[in-house]
Design a protein that fits this description.
alpha+beta, 4-stranded antiparallel beta sheet, 31% strand, globular, binds FE2/S2 (inorganic) cluster
Length: 375
């Protein structure tokens, strides 16, 4: 029996993540907006990892991301004006280079002023566009330049396997901490209860599962396997392609879940990210690309009609869970059904530890392993 005095996470040595629960991971790319939300001449605001951002596109179409705080008196820069090069604060008219954040003009200064306004900076963040998103590299909350030793990798890219394909994007806000958002994403045991549908699965379809996992850099992979026999979409896929399908699912820090389905020359590749907006609110972004029967909209139907329904079911469950989490933050991670969640916390702790010590990250998943559960 478990009552309130149970350990934070049961089973063996507690995998208490270092740092506070829901702690943010700095030093990664995060999607901040959809590319099509950025119009020239317009300033957009968004928050990621509790960093207020002002985002826009310069006159040449190149995106930029500044901390949405004027260094003079903290006025949000997103209320100001943008002329295609500089962002002007709406309070006292200070101007900042949109890409570097460097102050270029302080209107109140007299000609003989000693103030070197070029030494003043608004925080700024590297940004890149990929797969229809504007990605922002968050090295630190202030928007200081990343340390010289910190090489910035290219922004993440959705893997695709042939030149012609369709692409679709979905999104939702999840009222929970990033940790609950992510462990919900990789949790195999809620499917039959939360995602019940005649064409997918029900509690009567629960059966034994055994899946092979292996470590990959910064995460772990559910090795290529035949998709669940109890799911109709995969049966349809096999019917239309005539080839056996195989699925590979990766989780990679800080927040990315990739799923690839391949059947002969056909493929579907998707990525889901859960990015903290605040401690108690996250953004879920889902993108999928596929080349399966582009002239017959079966995949498009699955993504555009069934996808939002799936996401709604997860959002509803997380809303209800947040009612309980107000009273109890501790959780239990039991057996193999929760092993991936445990690995997530261990990966996160290992990353934070390597940030602290400067040592290479120690991978918590040491070799191939088979996990067994019922779902
Ligand atoms: S607060 Fe921005 S110019 Fe004064
Ligand atoms: Fe789900």
């Amino acid at each position: 029996m478990y009552y309130d005095n149970r350990p934070l996470m049961n089973e063996g040595t507690p995998a208490q993540p270092s740092g506070s629960p829901g702690e943010f991971l700095w030093g990664f790319w995060y999607p901040a907006l959809r590319s099509n939300q950025l119009r020239g001449g317009q300033l957009n605001s968004a928050a990621r990892l509790e960093v207020p951002l002002v985002l826009g596109r310069d006159a040449g179409g190149r995106p930029f991301a500044l901390r949405d705080i004027c260094p003079h008196r903290a006025f949000p820069l997103s209320f100001g004006r943008f002329d295609g090069t500089s962002v002007e604060c709406a309070y006292h008219g200070w101007q900042f280079d949109a890409h570097t954040g460097q102050c270029t003009h302080v209107p109140s200064l007299t000609a003989d002023s000693k103030l070197k306004c070029e030494r003043i900076y608004a925080g700024s963040f590297p940004c890149q566009e990929r797969d229809g998103y504007l990605w922002v590299f968050l090295a630190n909350p202030e928007g200081r330049p990343p340390a010289a030793s910190q090489a910035i990798p290219p922004a993440p890219e959705l893997p695709t396997f042939s030149p012609g394909y369709k692409i679709a994007h979905l999104g939702a806000n999840l009222p929970c901490s990033v940790d609950h958002g992510i462990i919900g994403l990789m949790d195999p045991a809620h499917g039959p209860f939360v995602h019940q549908a005649w064409w997918w699965r029900s509690r009567r379809s629960i059966r034994d599962k055994a899946k092979q996992f292996e470590p990959i850099p910064g995460g772990f992979r559910m090795s290529p396997h035949a998709p669940s026999a109890n799911s109709a979409p995969y049966k349809i896929l096999k019917l239309i392609t005539g080839e056996p399908a195989s699925t590979t699912i990766d989780f990679v820090l800080p927040n990315q879940r990739f799923e690839q389905i391949r059947a002969g020359k056909y493929w579907l590749s998707s990525r889901t990210t859960v990015t903290p907006i605040r401690r108690d609110l996250c953004r879920l972004d889902f993108v999928a690309a596929w080349n399966i029967l582009p002239w017959f909209p079966i995949v498009s139907f699955i993504i555009h009609v069934l996808g939002p329904r799936f996401i709604r079911q997860d959002t509803e469950v997380i809303k209800k869970q947040s009612l309980g989490l107000q009273h109890e933050e501790r959780m239990m991670l039991v057996d193999d059904a929760d092993r991936q969640a445990r690995w997530y916390f261990e990966l996160k702790a290992a990353y934070l530890e390597s940030q602290r010590t400067g040592q290479p990250m120690r991978h918590p998943v040491t070799g191939p392993i088979t996990l067994r559960w019922r779902s």
